[in-house]
Amino acid sequence: MLGDMSAKIPVYSICNLLNTENLPQDCVVLDLRTFLDYQQKATTPHRHSFYQVLYVENGEGVHSIDFKSFQIAAGDLFFLSPGQIHKWDFNETTKGVIVNFDEVFFSSFLAKRDYIKDFLFFMGSTDYALMKTDKATAFVGSIFQKIIREIETPEEVHWDLIRIYLLELFTLCDREMAQNQHQLYDGMPQFYLLKDFERLIEKHYITKRLPKEYAELLNVTPNYLNALCQKIKGVSAGAFIRNRLLLEAKRLLINSELSISEIAYQLDFKDNSYFSRFFRKYEGVTPLTFKRERLKN
Q1: How far apart, in whole angstroms, are the C-alpha atoms of residue 295 and residue 297?
Q2: Which Gene3D superfamilies has this protein been placed in (predicted)?
Q3: pTM of the model
Q4: Intervals of CATH 1.10.10.60 along the chain
């Protein structure tokens, strides 16, 4: 492969996102307003090497994640996984809390090292990036208040308490999100099958392009997998795979340092022309046109 897959557009770690003097090793809790006043690069497209949770207390604006725009509202919870591209365009009244953490923050605490990756909202999909807390706004707000109080304690911060508060939040949000998704399914087995399909795509989308390859991993027939995708999401199993590949192509294209040929090679296309035909067929414009238009914005 050419280059480093993490170096497509600006990638920020916890340590280079802010002054490192006041940061712990693997987790940081920030006041949103203070952060926006201090750090302007959050308003331009970038991606993180860490997980992020954003709780919006109030304000107006747009949060763009992987080329999808969300109008923010009080009580919104946004979840970001490493590698996702996002930017903020919030007005001066927007207030909230940001929690950034590395995977090791929980993997060193839990017996199951990849526990965090099982949550729907940390699968790297914009389908699960936003949760409207609605009636639970007060409860969710109380969790963030406890986190802030612990951070501001005059004694040494007890990071295990922060972990517990966050796990409580994640578990309750995942349960609520799963219940909402379950209403779209005939039963939980279908829900978990589609979830596993999405997780497998995230892991193998560059090397496995055919629905039958995933059907074999899931121990179902390709026809069953395709019918499930059509019924629940209204698209074919093949479209699921192509859409993930197309998303990564779009992520890479907005980096001016990578050529079309380099991107085609990194995504395992046979040649530049094959990649260009693929991109134009499903995005409607050539890769170069997409790149130029995005770089102008």
Answers
A1: 5
A2: Homeodomain-like, Jelly Rolls
A3: 0.82
A4: 188-296
